[in-house]
Amino acid sequence: MHSYEMRIDGQVRDGTERSVENPATGETVGTVSTGTRTDASDAIEAARSLRKEWAESDPARRERGLRAVAERIEADRDELSELLVAETGKCLGTAEGEVMETAQQFRFFAGVVDKVRGDTIPTSTNRLNYTKRVPYGVTAHIIPWNYPLLLGSRGIAAALATGNTVVAKPPSRAPLSTMWYGNILVEEFPDGVVNLVPGSGREVGAALSDHPGVDLITFTGSTAVGQQVLEAAAANITPVDLELGGKAPAVVLPDTDVENAARGVARGIFSNAGQNCVATSRAIVHEDVKAEFTELVVREAERISLGPGGDPSTDMGPVISAGAQDDILGYIEAGREEGATLRTGGNVPDDPELQDGYFVEPTVFDDVTPDMQIAREEIFGPVLSILSVESVDEAVAVANDSPYALAASVWTDGLHATRIADRLDHGLVAVNTFPVSMPQSPWGGNKESGLGREGGYEGVEAFTTVNSVVVEHGEMEPY
């Protein structure tokens, strides 16, 4: 049983204890003390008290801390992966990958600590103009539950590397693994530099969003909640970095290896039970290969073994909660009512050993049209919609016809792949793979999928602002 308390200014603080359940079994896997608006305010004040000192700290000190965190995550990777499986339900292999990429995030940003540079601007001969990238100050991090380690570390590592102090709200539904590595952060950095306040979005999340002592907010989650964060931050003109919803299209063209595309699209939608903002939930398939692709992807879906994530034979675990399960089943029913053809799945599994968990069968709909609810709204579950198109131009138009624009993929062996990618209005476009993240690569969406970018050097830019200095070498002329 894992138990964690808030960490504010390096100290442990008690709060209201809340149990965390395993979505595969309903069993309690740990507890976390949750905070209030007052706790969040205290954490912000602690971070503000270290704001100037940490911004001016030796880059080598920041680098050592980030590398130490990476090493400790790697040393604990087995236990941390098992905890991540227990509280989210994801498969062990997926959890292990997330843990290792989290360590890589800290290593990457450790490597850029001493490479944050400004520019020299050409001016008239008697002036010098140069810029400096400087930290914002106190950064607030509101972390999601679906990839709590990876998505939280992407912002926290960049913030610490660039000299910001941190107040983090672990996800309400799966806070334990975030608290695990959060405690490592607290131990490796000076008191007050990293502060952890678990709690509800309505209280702690809202407190971080509207507090005048926060200098930058980063939020990953639904578009609806992201809008609320923006509205709250507007009162203080606080900059906000957002990664929001997605409805990722996978464009499948006739000149691709159709079997490979079917495997990739299946991996993209059914991995992590579809609880992924870049899940390939729309397969936009050229009519020449649509029948073949559909049969192959249905076969892939029907091969998937459901079960607890810790079982080596499991291919897909549960969704995160009973509420999520109900929402997904509601979308499936809407698909039926709107006239889509259910090719496989669509139900809760009838295996009695899975009845205590929140499982949904891998589901594939055929004959989907762009106006259907299942083709337009983010389901955040293991539901694939297959749409047929007659041309590349139509495929691009359908792919872009969405308020979401986080990620897309193109499946083609043709040299026109990059031209098609350039026409897709999405923050990330993958060619012959499902969308993937890497520490050195930027991540973020267009339109209603977000604002800004994290990851890569763009992550450095996200957590710094630019100050310009103008030096006049000549004398002022009199009026």
Give the domain tally. Answer: 2
How would you sum up the global shape?
A: globular
Give the distance, in angstroms, between the N- and C-terminal Cα atoms. 76 Å
The CATH first-level class of the largest domain comes to Alpha Beta
What fold name goes in the CATH topology slot of the largest domain? Aldehyde Dehydrogenase, Chain A, domain 1
Averaging pLDDT over every residue, what do you get? 97
How much β-strand is present in the residues? 15-25%
Query: What class, by secondary structure content?
Result: alpha/beta
The quaternary structure here is single chain
Number of strands: 23
Structural features, described:
- This protein has 479 residues and is α/β, with parallel strands linked by helices.
- It has 2 domains: 2-244 and 449-468, Aldehyde Dehydrogenase, Chain A, domain 1, CATH 3.40.605.10; 249-431, Aldehyde Dehydrogenase, Chain A, domain 2.
- Helices cover 39% and strands 22% of the residues.
- It has 16 helices and 23 strands.
- The chain has helices spanning 37-49, 51-55, 59-75, 77-88, 92-112, 148-161, 176-188, 201-210, 223-234, 258-270, 290-303, 322-338, 373-376, 392-400, 417-423, 456-462, and strands at 2-4, 6-8, 11-13, 16-21, 28-34, 120-121, 127-135, 138-142, 165-169, 194-196, 216-220, 240-243, 249-252, 282-286, 341-344, 363-366, 383-389, 404-405, 407-411, 428-431, 446-447, 450-451, 464-472.
- The strands form 6 sheets. It has a 7-stranded mixed β-sheet, with helices on both faces.
- It is globular, with a radius of gyration of 23 Å.
